[in-house]
Amino acid sequence: MALLQTDNLTAHYGDFQALFGVDIRLEEGETVAIIGANGAGKTTLMRSISGVLTNRADAITFENDRIGSAHAADIVKKGIAMVPEGRKLFPSLSVEENLLIGAHGRKVTGIWTLETVYEMFPVLKERRLNPGTALSGGQQQMVAIGRALMSNPRVLLCDEISLGLAPVIIRDIYAALPKIKASGTSIVVVEQDIGQALKVADRVYCMMEGRITLEGAPSDLSRDAIHNAYFGAAA
Ligand SMILES: Nc1ncnc2c1ncn2[C@@H]1O[C@H](COP(=O)(O)OP(=O)(O)O)[C@@H](O)[C@H]1O
Ligand SMILES: [Mg+2]
């Protein structure tokens, strides 16, 4: 059994069906990337796993526990933390207060504390008393990642952490992922940026129109196969 898996996962927004029988798995210690164009269903999949959208109990399994119908606060307690699309910091709170909020969700001790988050992202220590909104986009993304780590999760879900950032900043943000992996956390990264995803992932899933269209290790996937799975064979 995988650490985390979905089984025939579906999702709807009213009458609109956004996910059609999605099956993915994340093994202990793995970094898995989910790539796909805008609207493919990547964020909906992350919202489903993190309990923002609920489902059949057996649609999602984590550590042999059926969590598909659990709500977001319980999912964090169980050890799955999300870095949401668009960062979603609390604007009136300082960097440090934003980070501390992450620790409230799950009271377990682990390697992630204010000190170790600041060690990974030193600029946040310098700016720890600033409001989140006074930071650059890249610094805000570091806070969002740090906030999720403060719950010492077993699984970290990262939704488009490169979106809207300059290439040098993306490189800095992505440099954190191997450190997070080395700390024992398994990782799911959602990306539209295929190159970035292939660099960090042990395994990749491609999504299109609410379905998984391709799965494999980066070295086993041809450019043509990825292109067809991402844009459709006719594109
Ligand atoms: N809150 C919502 N209400 C209605 N439709 C939504 C909502 N969120 C997303 N969708 C639709 O669901 C589909 C998948 O969206 P999303 O999961 O955000 O894709 P991605 O993250 O891959 O860009 C899209 O067609 C999108 O328009
Ligand atoms: Mg999205």
What Rg is obtained from the alpha carbons, in whole angstroms? 17 Å
What is the chain-wise order of helices and strands? Answer: EEEEEHEEHEHHHHEHEHEEH
Report the portion of residues in β strands. Answer: 15-25%
What hetero molecules are bound to the protein chains? adenosine-5'-diphosphate, magnesium ion
Sheet having the most strands: 6 strands, mixed
Regions with little confidence, pLDDT below 50 for 5+ residues: none
Determine the N-to-C terminus distance.
36 Å
Total DSSP E strands: 12
By CATH, the topology is: Rossmann fold
CATH architecture: 3-Layer(aba) Sandwich
What would you call the structural class?
Answer: alpha/beta
- How many helical stretches? 9
Tell me the domain tally: 1
CATH C-level class is Alpha Beta
How do the strands of the widest beta sheet line up side by side? 8-9-10-5-11-12
Helix content: 25-40%
Q: What is the residue-averaged pLDDT?
A: 94
Instruction: Indicate the overall shape.
Output: globular
Q: What do we call the CATH homologous superfamily? A: P-loop containing nucleotide triphosphate hydrolases
